[in-house]
Amino acid sequence: MSTKHEQIVEYIETLPIGARISVRSIAKAMTVSEGTAYRAIKDAETQGLVSSMDRVGTIRIERKEKKHIERLTYAEVVNIVDGTVLGGRAGLHKTLQKFVIGAMQMEAAVRYIEPDSLMIVGNRQQIQRIALEHGAAVLITGGFTVTEDVQDLADRLQLPIISCSYDTFTTAAMINRAIYDRLIKKDILLVEDILPQDELTTLTKGATVREYRQLVERTGHGKFPVIDEDGRLVGIITAKDVTDASESDPVDQHMTRQPFVVTLKTPIASAAHQMVWEGVEMMPVVQGRKLVGAISRQDVIRALQSMDRQPQVGETIEGSVLRGFDELLNEDKGVSLQGQVTAQMIGPTGTLSMGALTTLIENCAVLSVHRQRKADVVVENITLYFMKPVSVDSEIELRGRVIDIGRRFAKVDVEVFAGDNQVAKALLTTQTLER
């Protein structure tokens, strides 16, 4: 039987798109405490079923397709520009395809207005009306309001009219920055992006060891998730677990309880590190407590390799630090990184920040191991000695050297120089993720 938490999420999923949701209304409708309702709403938000916005509230939204993650909803635009909704509130859940700045003649503006776009304009009522009639929402800059007939039109068409106090250029820049940030997030692969769509083979906790062995013969696999009657994960069963078991024993007597799991929103890099750290070949994927699939080490490796080949549409903090550093091969087969300390890499004292230095050292170590073993590498731990401050615009060199390497582990020594002066030294332990 489903839990109250799961029943609330299922109920939210049945609500119409655009419906307003509150903790009190959900608690009353489902006869639960407000604390239970609050936790369930937060879970629904994680699943992409609802969106909570300041000054707007929580509304039921459509799940965004991954390829359209860079699109913003009009409700999100309200938050970005600190705006006020003047009309068309029922359409706040909709997403915008593009925005258009209405600083042009009427005839020219009409050519650029498309459905699901956002017209950014000042106190020009005629363009506001035409934009709504062509299926576009309106963002009014300068803090102006609208007439009652334009507001009524927006309510009837369910197209938001938003007002903000910023000028047109600042408003457009803020929205453009938000879209750019979304593009960066789009590059971060999650477990849900690589989850196999094939039907997952499972065993119920009442199944016998005989059924497990028959399943092994039929599939060629030896590790299976064990679920209860409601599809919730209760354990993992492997050949090692049933070595001395009787054929008639139920699998739940021998299975491993509380196995390591990941969720749909777990980043692939995090899942890879956990699989290496725990030494597991397969990890169940859960949503709440329900089993929704499983990923293998092969799935993770393919995803990491795919990420390396993808063009970057947005730049991360790490990318900003590494930009401008050149990779060189040392005589002792180690790797050097050479570059300049930029303003983006300094801390409050005006010198190279610990975070930027650590990023450079980790990348130098990973490249050094990768030179000797073509495998995906994760850093397990790092011991860092920071000897001297490094000022902005200084030329620095990081010299990486593998001092010990085995089948799964490697130790790397990294020295950092500014001119002839050694400014830092680090010892890192890494693990390799191999096929």
From TrEMBL:
Keywords: CBS domain. InterPro entries: CBS_dom, CBS_dom_sf, Diverse_CBS-Domain, DRTGG, HotDog_dom_sf, Ser_kin/Pase_Hpr-like_N_sf, Thioestr_dom, WH-like_DNA-bd_sf. PROSITE patterns: CBS. It holds the Pfam family DRTGG. SUPFAM superfamilies: CBS-domain pair, HprK N-terminal domain-like, Thioesterase/thiol ester dehydrase-isomerase, Winged helix' DNA-binding domain. The keyword Signal does not apply. Residues 194-253, 255-312 form the CBS domain. SMART domains: CBS (SM00116). This is CBS domain-containing protein. It comes from Alicyclobacillus ferrooxydans.
